[in-house]
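<discrete_fold_record>
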Amino acid sequence: MKPSRRAVLGGAAAAVAASTISLPATAAGRLSNLAHLDFLRTPVTPPAAPGHSTYGSGPLGVLWTYAEHQADGSYRRVGGGTYDAATNTYGQGAYNADDIARAAVVYVRHWKLFRRTTSLDAARGLLRSLTYLQSPNGNVVLWMQPDGTLNPSAEPVELPDPSDSGPSYWLARTVWALGEGYAAFRPVDSVFAGFLRERLELAIAALERQVLVRYGDYNVVDGRRLPAWLIVNGADATSEAVLGLAAYVRAGGSPPARRVLARFAEGIAKMGAGSTREWPFRALLPWGESISDWHAWGAQMPSALAAAASALGNRDLLQPAIGDTAGFTPLLLTAGGPDNGWLPAPVDRSQIAYGVDARLQAVLALGQQHLAAFVAAWYFGANHAGAPTYDAATGRTYDGISGDGVINRNSGAESTIHGQLSMLALDANPDIPRLSGTPAYDGLRLVEAESGTGGQVVTPPAAWTGESQWSNGSYLALDGTATWTLPAATQPRLVLPVVNVTEHPDRTVWSSGGKVLGTLNYRGGPQGISAAPGALLPLTLAKPLPATATRMTATGTGQLDALLLIPLISSLRIGRATLLVSVDTRPVRVLGEHAWNYDASGKLVAQGKAIVEPGGFTVVLG
């Protein structure tokens, strides 16, 4: 398709010149390094606990939860919750099923990629401890004390309480580990694989009994119908179970496993929302109790759908996954990277490996290697801190970066695990370039509604509503007219006022320079299971804000949280590589003769001249 107009963009994109220079090659050698994860592992011989058993005899392999950075550069392994030196116990525990399960996946994948027997042995030890934590009802105890004593009811309280009394994130992650573990051990140790199969079937039965009993039912959430058959009402938790179920089904899993996989995948697929120009921009929402919440951590939904599509031979599952990776993820990257929470404004701008890894696994699962290079660059210094968060020499991944760019130098189990999962994925795909350098973003910007003149600033008792979060902890109550002074721009911007959509009708007319940009008439549906009446939602104005506009006015009534401004072509530049993302309705020609152009479906449509397709993205070298 020929572009209908030519645009020369400012910011990072303007610096892209015609070039045939290729991206820098990936450095020689492996990125993955299990040394720090090995440091977190330890053996334990638990005292007898009624109803709990495992395969074989001898100490179990467990994993310390946290590792605190010390002044001398070393690390101290600690548990979760308040420590009682007299009893050598923690309020929560030293080791937990969540991390044990995910660490087992690391060692299984390391074995599959490098065939190192020590990795297979480590996986066996962790899977033995994970199955010891499983109760006869198929559920899983979350915490274990340093001596191996189980702690079903932790302090602070975590739901369900006791932790093996119902479905949970840790049950979902147990299914993930058992599924991938079974697939890996089946050809090398059929007896142990048979044991893993028995325990996985026990967990599957628990999920059918406790979760899938609601298959086909829907919950009402602020007027929308969301599937009621997700684990703990979460597409995030369910996606991690699906990863294990898909591995199990591909390895010859049972008919019940195939049925459970299909039903969970169906539920996840129904969590897609929005369009190329409407919130949440085709993202798969992670939480079935909110239509205003997207978080990076645990957002494995696209990779889970890709795995399920392969295991079930159902390509229909790929469409919502592609929408998430080709639509939402590029906008997330140009807005500043994998933020921890858009709720719905990007209010939690901290970034952690758990969220970065989920984005990386997703784009790789959908074959979008160009995007993978930009996601992975977070580990190598292309982040708000401007410094690496992964140390290949030690295998440490730091515990995240704050919204203002400060690295948390601790390196606990979760960060280490997901850092290693990312590095294993990159080792398995050595052609993905390693980008590094200070990133230059020209993407979504947030303007606080209460920064305008007019209206009344209201500060509720808490910023968190129970299902979404007021940006900056306050909002503007409008009953009349308010005006905002906006940052200057070099191109038109899509405008999305974030408003509280309640069952009370509201109407606002938005204008700039004497021209109406759009009229919002909105009224929410029934609250349903949502924790709060109303939903904070970004609503797209019909016309973009002109490039020269620096003032905007709203007239009407409503509760306004923020204004989201998105350039029609947003960009992220790292070194000599630039990612361009469109929310325009027409193709846009930009500077650059060495480019890969993808359409809104994630399909590569052209190489050569940089033409950003409507709702698509382009990668330019130069």
Notes: The mean pLDDT is 94.
